[in-house]
Amino acid sequence: MALGDCWKQLSWFYYQYLLVTALYMLEPWERTVFNSLLVSVAAMAIYTGYVFMPQHIMAILHYFEMVQ
Amino acid sequence: MTESPATKPANGEVCVKNGLKPERNGFVKSLDRCHERQHKHHWHPDEDEIHAASYHGSLYSRPFIESFEETPMLVAVLTYMGYGILTIFGYLRDFLRHWKIERCHIAREKEEQKDFVPLYQDFENFYTRNLYMRIRDNWNRPICSVPGAKMDLMERASHDYNWTFEYTGRVVQDVINLGSYNYLGFAENTGPCADSAAEVTMKYGVGIASTRQEIGNLDRHEEMEKLVAKFLGVESAMAFGMGFATNSMNIPALAGKGCLILSDELNHASLVLGARLSGSTIRVFKHNNMQSLEKLLKEAIVHGQPRTHRPWKKVLIVVEGIYSMEGSIVRLPEVIALKKRYRAYLYLDEAHSIGALGPRGRGVVDYFGLDPCDVDVMMGTFTKSFGAAGGYIAGKRELIEYLRSHSHSAVYATSMSPPVVEQIITSMKCIMGEDGTTIGCDRVRQLAENTVYFRKRLREMGFIIYGNNDSPVVPMMLYMPAKIGAFGREMLKRNIGVVVVGFPATPIIESRARFCISAAHTNDMLDRALSVISEVGDLLQLKYSRHRIQPSLARPFDDNVYEDIDD
């Protein structure tokens, strides 16, 4: 039942997230708003990182004179 | 003198008068330098909790161990973040209510008054609307049985997120009660107390229909007051119908303009209200901190009243026996020593400690083995340990005679109802052993054992517990706002009723669950409660403490630490 255990563990982590960010006290639509905001900000950050990471790494290596 | 055999120093030190140590050349040191020396000598290396195992050899006959572990940094940051998110959503909801996108359930001004000064915009109302309402189902739960060790609750459900409640019709049976102030278990509907109260109701009725001063003074009242005076070991006592009113209506009769009231930081609202109503100058000293109190006393004596520099008419120190939100016990021997040195008066509010502390159940004075005549005004309530309602003030005969004619409560408030008076008389006789049984004595001992056991087990599990090791009030820290609601609900699901406390009663990040141990709790109930608390603590990740104490390791008490004190 590895999938069942995994699901239980994830569910427990989600519960802890709800408690720590106080989303536990909010109504379902408020939770949706907050979660979508959080997911969109995180997605934008990851996308930006993905797009600009090669350029940044080349700039760092150039600064340390490891590559021309 | 305050010295009893218990307070005489065991290691052959020089005999001490008034708690002050004489130096070799005969001069007397002040208490604060004495404290500094003592603290330096028993400083443990792993401290970032304030674990004051004070043992000022001549003042305290037993170790005074209390701890207030510091909030872990990560928990504090996350708690602030949680409150920040709730505040943002609170503003959002207020905006929606203002623009009528959402229906507003709570009080607001009428249409015609919209341009007046706003009534509901301050932080208190914002907090109530947006934070308190969301977890309101943890408070005001209707109880439909006697609040003993186990109780029955009416089940409620809410379909609009706690704005309104409906009863489902079911009753939750046998919920273990960890919230009632039932320290000695006298909240019961069977037994000698209940029987005698029923008899007296048959004879005197329930209402009195007059004030104490007019024609509401029954012979039962006189007998009760004599009994209270005998219980406490003072000359005379007077009882009032309501504990809150005892404080707020009698402090104005004792202090007035030109007097100075020194009150502890965390005093109860009734004491604060009474002090403000009296019109005296109020100065606040840090909680249970004797150096702060001594500094204020010195300043008061040296500088006198603010502009004229005349001496104060009287200086009244107001402290409580047990502070119910912290679980700490007042450092009474030191307060009495200070009071005697600086010629101040002491008002001791024993609301939670009477009946609950001390080998004979006579309160905090008995716990420290001191003389009751040293405390000028002893106040207490009958609500907590005696299972009745009301409060008393006890002290010298002249003081009580003065209060009989000058106290607002005696002149204007209706006197206590006869069954309540009878409950007090019977329960007090039971505690003193005058009814011929040892029930009272057993209960006092049972409460002390239950307290020590419960606190020790909770600490071992890793929760942060505040307060003194001997106090039956056990505050357990929760910190995060969502965990307040979650803890109350999860405990109720598992059939245990607890009281959780949040913002206005405690500082904003230090929310807690407060357990009140009772002598009526059997070992099985306590074990069941502890295992459930541990389970819920794991589920909600409440075990914040960074000082796990091993169960078998008792801290050895080092007597030779004090040998190198040189006077």
Automatic annotation (TrEMBL), chain A:
<dbReference type="GO" id="GO:0005789">
    <property type="term" value="C:endoplasmic reticulum membrane"/>
</dbReference>
<keyword id="KW-0256">Endoplasmic reticulum</keyword>
<comment type="similarity">
    <text>Belongs to the SPTSS family. SPTSSA subfamily.</text>
</comment>
<feature type="transmembrane region" description="Helical">
    <location>
        <begin position="33"/>
        <end position="53"/>
    </location>
</feature>
<keyword id="KW-0812">Transmembrane</keyword>
<keyword id="KW-0443">Lipid metabolism</keyword>
<keyword id="KW-0472">Membrane</keyword>
<comment type="pathway">
    <text>Lipid metabolism; sphingolipid metabolism.</text>
</comment>
<protein>
    <recommendedName>
        <fullName>Serine palmitoyltransferase small subunit A</fullName>
    </recommendedName>
</protein>
<dbReference type="Pfam" id="PF11779">
    <property type="entry name" value="SPT_ssu-like"/>
</dbReference>
<dbReference type="GO" id="GO:0046513">
    <property type="term" value="P:ceramide biosynthetic process"/>
</dbReference>
<keyword id="KW-0746">Sphingolipid metabolism</keyword>
<keyword id="KW-1133">Transmembrane helix</keyword>
<dbReference type="GO" id="GO:0017059">
    <property type="term" value="C:serine palmitoyltransferase complex"/>
</dbReference>
<feature type="transmembrane region" description="Helical">
    <location>
        <begin position="12"/>
        <end position="27"/>
    </location>
</feature>
<dbReference type="InterPro" id="IPR051900">
    <property type="entry name" value="SPT_small_subunit"/>
</dbReference>
<dbReference type="InterPro" id="IPR024512">
    <property type="entry name" value="Ser_palmitoyltrfase_ssu-like"/>
</dbReference>
<comment type="pathway">
    <text>Sphingolipid metabolism.</text>
</comment>
<dbReference type="GO" id="GO:0004758">
    <property type="term" value="F:serine C-palmitoyltransferase activity"/>
</dbReference>
Automatic annotation (TrEMBL), chain B:
<dbReference type="InterPro" id="IPR001917">
    <property type="entry name" value="Aminotrans_II_pyridoxalP_BS"/>
</dbReference>
<keyword id="KW-0746">Sphingolipid metabolism</keyword>
<comment type="pathway">
    <text>Sphingolipid metabolism.</text>
</comment>
<dbReference type="GO" id="GO:0030170">
    <property type="term" value="F:pyridoxal phosphate binding"/>
</dbReference>
<keyword id="KW-0472">Membrane</keyword>
<keyword id="KW-0663">Pyridoxal phosphate</keyword>
<protein>
    <recommendedName>
        <fullName>serine C-palmitoyltransferase</fullName>
        <ecNumber>2.3.1.50</ecNumber>
    </recommendedName>
</protein>
<feature type="domain" description="Aminotransferase class I/classII large">
    <location>
        <begin position="174"/>
        <end position="533"/>
    </location>
</feature>
<comment type="pathway">
    <text>Lipid metabolism; sphingolipid metabolism.</text>
</comment>
<keyword id="KW-0812">Transmembrane</keyword>
<dbReference type="GO" id="GO:0046513">
    <property type="term" value="P:ceramide biosynthetic process"/>
</dbReference>
<dbReference type="GO" id="GO:0017059">
    <property type="term" value="C:serine palmitoyltransferase complex"/>
</dbReference>
<dbReference type="InterPro" id="IPR050087">
    <property type="entry name" value="AON_synthase_class-II"/>
</dbReference>
<comment type="similarity">
    <text>Belongs to the class-II pyridoxal-phosphate-dependent aminotransferase family.</text>
</comment>
<dbReference type="GO" id="GO:0005789">
    <property type="term" value="C:endoplasmic reticulum membrane"/>
</dbReference>
<dbReference type="GO" id="GO:0046512">
    <property type="term" value="P:sphingosine biosynthetic process"/>
</dbReference>
<dbReference type="InterPro" id="IPR015422">
    <property type="entry name" value="PyrdxlP-dep_Trfase_small"/>
</dbReference>
<keyword id="KW-0808">Transferase</keyword>
<keyword id="KW-1133">Transmembrane helix</keyword>
<keyword id="KW-0012">Acyltransferase</keyword>
<keyword id="KW-0256">Endoplasmic reticulum</keyword>
<dbReference type="InterPro" id="IPR015421">
    <property type="entry name" value="PyrdxlP-dep_Trfase_major"/>
</dbReference>
